[in-house]
Write a structure and sequence with these properties.
The complex is a heterodimer of chains A (about 270) and B (about 350). Chain A is an alpha/beta fold and about 270 residues long. Chain A contains ten helices and twelve strands. Chain B has about 350 residues and is mainly alpha-helical. The chains are: A alpha/beta (about 270), B mainly alpha (about 350). Chains A and B meet through helix 3, strand 6, helix 4 and helix 6 of A and helix 9 and helix 10 of B.
């Protein structure tokens, strides 16, 4: 979608974000394009997760604003916002005796009225999410009986059932083994490529970020340190400056993406 | 919460509607009707169930009518209303705090109401231990006490972002304060009043009038339609706050609405029948074991079970030590405390 790539779907305008007295961003300026996979990365405490939460309004902007397709996220209704943006939070939780299917249905909240059962559209979205995350065989399973990878898929399906054009994922590969990391991110990429969903995710692993990002945003000390395609952001200078380590950046022989090998600071 | 043994009905499932569900409602309503008929029949001048039923259906002799309609029916109905209100209060509270062990008494509401009543009896008694105002103001005193303490708990917890844990901690602390003040007032106050307060504190429907039944009924009729708006949001609260918010739930307003409703329901019940213990804890818990955690059936069944518990406890308290009457609150506490302890042990085991 070349023409939508230029349009900024999401704009942070002088956004001030803080937890109590601790300022994370004084005035964040950032534009994210529609229809792309954007990865937020940076060291612990750099604010990447805060920036994502603020977009989904789980953290309120103190000053400035964040705009979604031109309208401020701070004034929209809860359900209206949820229909535009779904988010997988960092450590979601639900009771152990909840069944997988029951969890996924909860993703439809923003589309349902106060009363009545699931509409055909609800069923369709739940079905699609269940298939996309390959949960068909686990529908009757209690959450307490799932493995880490299955659990993550169940949560991802819940978020997908919300059927929002924008997907926010806060460290979706946390606690997953290497195979499940790749599978999760392949799924995310398919959702982007096949359904045109805009995806913004926080990833700790720079090499995974480089591999799946159309665009990387590298945060450092409450500022955007670098932003652009992985080939521009994943440089030895950037990584050295932001993480305070030495490193070597090579090119993945299979995928042609940059990857980095970290070394202790010289 | 991990529930032991009993199967949990799958509530939100796409296609499965458990066949045994209609049976649950038939049994529940049947038991409730049985408690009603026995409750108006049995007592110091006993009526057989068929006589009691005949009077309820508009027949019966004059004396039977007086016993059933004037003396016992208001008592049974008030017990049922109060039980339903306390059970609903507990169900809303347990959902709001995501804590299956929460009950209205931990928010300081019940002790606040008790303080209101004892203060009322103390302030409005003259030298001869007679009340200087009508006893009908007592429910208002209880409600004011309940609202004052609920408000105080909310205000204190507000400063720290109104988390469930904070509310519970402040509730326990302020509840202890209220209970200490009650003790002080009972010691320094008139002895006759202390006795009266004691019966009320234990929770009793002994003195029920049709007036009380009507007022509580009207209050419930006002609260129930608001409660009926909550189940969808309550279902969403099985998620953690952030996930629930991300799915579109207005988390803080929902939390405040549930807490507010819980306070009003508790104040309504406690004002008229006193501190009937454990119903708000037991009824929702039992309901969840039977119909699962989905809010709508859980709320309805909680209310039915709560009504059954208090009316049943009143009946038992009337019969067991006849001609003495034991306050129903004492009975629910005697039955409730072991259940609560069993619950704690069972939870401890599943967590280990």
């Amino acid at each position: 979608m070349p023409e939508t790539q230029a349009a900024a779907a999401i704009s942070y305008r002088r956004a001030g974000l803080a937890y109590g007295p601790v300022t994370v961003f004084a005035d964040l300026e950032l534009d994210l394009a529609a229809g792309r996979v954007t990865v937020f990365c940076g060291p612990n405490g750099c604010g990447k997760s805060t920036a994502l939460k603020a977009l989904r309004r789980l953290v309120r902007t103190r000053t400035g604003d964040i705009f979604l397709n031109g309208s401020s996220v701070s004034v929209q209704g809860n359900k209206a916002l949820a229909r535009q943006m779904a988010m997988l939070t960092q450590s979601p939780s639900a009771p152990e005796d909840l069944l997988v299917e029951q969890l996924v249905v909860l993703g439809r909240y923003a589309h349902r009225s106060r009363f009545g059962g699931l509409s055909p559209a609800d069923r369709q979205a739940v079905d699609a999410a269940i298939d996309a995350c390959e949960l068909r065989d686990l529908l009757d399973r209690r959450l307490g009986a799932l493995s880490g990878g299955q659990m993550q898929r169940a949560w991802l399906a819940t978020v997908l059932a919300q059927d929002a054009p924008i997907l926010l994922l806060d460290e979706p590969t946390n606690h997953l083994d290497i195979r499940h990391q790749i599978e999760t991110l392949e799924l995310v990429r398919r959702l982007n490529r096949d359904k045109g969903r805009t995806v913004v995710l926080v990833l700790h692993d720079l090499n995974l970020a480089s591999r799946y990002a159309d665009e990387m945003v590298m945060f450092s000390g409450g500022r955007v340190h670098a932003k652009g395609p992985p080939s521009e952001v994943m440089t030895e200078t950037n990584i050295g400056a932001v993480f305070g380590i030495g490193c070597k950046v090579l090119t993945d022989p299979e995928l042609g993406r940059p990857f980095c090998i970290p070394y202790p600071k010289v | 919460m991990s529930a032991p043994t009993l199967p949990i009905a799958s509530g939100i499932g796409l296609s499965r509607t458990p066949l045994r569900l209609p049976l649950v409602w038939i049994v529940a309503l049947g038991l409730l009707a049985t408690v009603l008929v026995l409750g108006v029949g049995l007592g110091s001048s006993g009526l057989t169930p068929d006589r009691a039923l005949a009077v309820l259906l508009g027949g019966g002799e004059r004396t039977e009518q007086i016993i059933v309609l004037k003396l016992r029916l208001p008592r049974v109905l008030l017990a049922m209303e109060a039980g339903a209100a306390l059970a609903l209060a507990g169900a809303l509270l347990q959902t709001a705090t995501r804590n299956p062990l929460a009950s209205p008494s931990i928010l300081g509401i019940v002790n606040g109401a008790a303080l209101g009543v004892v203060a009322f009896l103390w302030i409005f008694s003259d030298e001869a231990n007679a009340l200087t105002v009508s006893i009908h103001w007592q429910p208002l005193a209880a409600t004011l006490g309940a609202l004052a303490f609920a408000g105080l708990v909310t205000l204190l917890a507000w400063r720290d972002g109104l988390g469930p844990t904070r509310m519970v901690v402040y509730g326990i602390a302020l509840g202890a304060l209220a209970s200490a003040l009650v003790t002080v007032l009972m010691i320094v106050g008139p002895i006759y009043r202390a006795n009266q307060a004691l019966t009320w504190l234990a929770g009793s429907v002994q003195a029920a009038h049709w007036n009380d039944v009507t007022i509580v009924g009207v209050l419930l009729a006002m609260l129930v339609p608001i409660i009926a708006l909550m189940p969808r949001a309550m279902d969403q609260l099985v998620l953690d706050d952030q996930s629930a918010a991300a799915s579109g739930l207005a988390v803080t307003p929902t939390f405040l609405a549930l807490m507010g409703l819980s306070v009003l329901l508790t104040a309504t019940a406690v004002s008229f029948v006193g501190g009937v213990a454990f119903v708000g804890l037991l009824a929702p818990h039992a309901a969840r074991l039977i119909v699962g955690r989905r809010a709508l059936p859980m709320l309805v069944l909680s209310a039915i079970i709560g009504a059954m518990i208090v009316a049943g406890a009143d009946l038992f308290g009337r019969l067991a030590f006849s001609p003495l009457e034991v306050p129903s609150g004492a009975i629910t506490a005697i039955l409730g405390a072991p259940y609560f302890i069993w619950l704690l042990i069972a939870r401890g085991r599943t967590h280990a």
